Amino acid sequence: MAAFHFPKTTFNKGIVVPSLFFIIGVCLVSILFPVGTASILDRVKEFIFVNLNWVYVWAVTIFVIFLVYLVFSRFGKIRLGANDSKPEYSFFSWISMLFAAGMGIGLMYFSVAEPMQHYSSDVFAGGHVVSRAKNAQLYTFFHWGVHAWAIYGIVGLALSYFAYRYRLPLSLRSCFYPLLKNRINGKWGNAIDVFALCSTFFGITTTLGFGVVQVNAGLQTLGVVPETSFSYQILIVAVLTSLSIISATTGVDKGVRILSNVNIIVVIILLLFVLLFGPTVYLIGSFTEGLGNYINSFFDLTFSTHVYEEQTLPWFYNWTILYWAWWISWSPYVGLFIAKISKGRTIREFVAAVLILPTLFNFIWMSVFGNSAIWFDFNIADGALSALVKDPDALMFRFLEYLPFSNLVSYLVIAIIIIFFVTSADSGIFVMNSIATKNALSSPKWQMPFWGILLAVLALMLLNAGGLQALQTMTLITALPFSLIMLMFGVSLIKALTIDRNYYERDFSVSTIPWSGEFWRTRLKQIVSFKTRNSVDEFISTTVRQAFDELREEFATNGIAAKINSYDSPRKLEIEISHDVVNNFIYGVRNQVKVVSEYLIEEENLPELEDKRTFYPRSYFGDAREGYDVQYFTANELISDVLKHYERFLEIVSEEKNELFISSNANDSND
């Protein structure tokens, strides 16, 4: 009998095993005890939303401010990759893919449902119909605008930067490299990737479940299927998952890109159809006014916690905070996918495109569909659409009945929902496999179908048992710790960007300016050798001391009294010229320590260095200006350097406008 061989795999056990254990465990609990699990998780979610909602508000606000700062900062020119990198995808394909992965299916589900629910909400019921319509549009814009894309943008940017600029794996763990260094390859890194894999899986599973229900409702409305039953949902899941697996297997360059391009074109056609056959003038005017209202209210909306309006707090928790938690929970998946397709873009181009273009399209889409529905409800339907706000799965299709060719358009909407789902799921499958394999370049063919089948099976089981809501709640709860992780992404990113910019902007060392080539052999030996504390102390005691002694004698011949101050621990030597009215002139050299990169320690093509610390002589001045390394200076070059600073000192103290900076009070602090 032939021996059984396990299929070849590129899965990383430290990531996949705990992830599958947690995913299957949570799903089984939700399936076996849906009511009890949902009740417990709802209480946890309610506690977080009520008592810690400010964490979400501040986190999202910081993401927006941080990304806008990067656009206008000197870091904006940095490229996501080598300095000569070029984008892998056309601008249209890039925007299409990030849009389809980030928002697509949600726009189909909520484009009519959310504005209608705000319009019909008790929170706004006391206002005039115009006021309710304006608020419906404003808060829909708020939930689907810049703030949502800032959440995706912060993760996508950090991943892109560290993957393509630092050449680290395309993994969330890489975003902590400036803080954890090589520890990202250990247990901490695995824990971060486990979190990302579970979050991605839960997000796509719940989307699959809700997407299937909407497709089923649409098919029933059109009379294609007689009812919204579980048996039909099994068939829909099977078809959608199969398409997603096929698309994911063909790769980003083919399946995902082609479907995204096709879908964005079809979506624009549908948008133009509703705009043309709906209340066109009203829609254009309401979009224009709504955009202005959003811009004027931007800061109020951003920082609002509704703490002074207790009657609106439940609405605030169930809409704004829920949305922030939902976008955050989706950000590992969407961010990873955005990063995958963004190599070669500059930071300015990345942030501006991610924040502005999808946001603008969302606003146009929500205005056309949401405002059309509100206009039909008030002017034609006599409240029939408002009455359906508790049935969002069917609301889109009921809305389409007020437009010409409603059946044909409904089929088109179902097709768009299917393609949007496939583009979300196939990129999700691709991302999950990438996380599970630590971004392996190639994987066995069975791994993509594995994730797709697992998604389909667990989504159907949850759908049948009524545990899908519990899983969604679990996903929202995990958003709280991940929002803190995302804040650390920002800290890590700004630290890395500062190092990056300084690296490329750093000029030749000041100590190399006087080089003429006369002592090149000696200087080569100095450059490739590492200094000990004792060798630097000796340099200060000999070369620096010789230079300062000669200077003191020459100053004395010119009627200027200079003294030399010597200090130990650390070794310092300075020449000082005292003044009564202005600050003393001081030029000193101290023994300074610096930590050497581990990479340099392990480099075989350099002299051996046993300790991470090395020492060098660094200059300092009486006015606290930044000093520099003087280890390559000869005694005469040191004398020349001191005289340069003394000439600068005399030039400054001779100018009346500098009186504020040359007060003799500073001399007291030097005593």
Automatic annotation (TrEMBL):
Q: Which domain of life is it from?
A: Bacteria
Could you tell me where this protein is found in the cell?
Cell membrane
Q: Which InterPro entries match?
A: BCCT_CS (IPR018093), BCCT_transptr (IPR000060)
PROSITE patterns per the UniProt record, alphabetical:
BCCT (PS01303)
The keyword Transport is annotated on this UniProt entry: yes
Q: Coiled coil located at which positions?
A: none
> Do the record's keywords include Cell division?
no
Please report the record's description of how this protein sits within the membrane.
Multi-pass membrane protein
TM helices/strands, residue ranges = 20-41, 53-72, 92-112, 141-164, 191-212, 232-252, 264-284, 316-338, 350-369, 408-436, 448-468, 474-494
Keywords for this protein = Cell membrane, Membrane, Transmembrane, Transmembrane helix, Transport
Query: Which is an annotated Pfam family here?
Result: BCCT
PANTHER family the UniProt entry points to: HIGH-AFFINITY CHOLINE TRANSPORT PROTEIN, HIGH-AFFINITY CHOLINE TRANSPORT PROTEIN-RELATED
Family the entry assigns: Belongs to the BCCT transporter (TC 2.A.15) family.
Query: By what name is this protein known?
Result: BCCT family transporter
Supply the source organism's classification.
Answer: Bacteria, Pseudomonadati, Bacteroidota, Sphingobacteriia, Sphingobacteriales
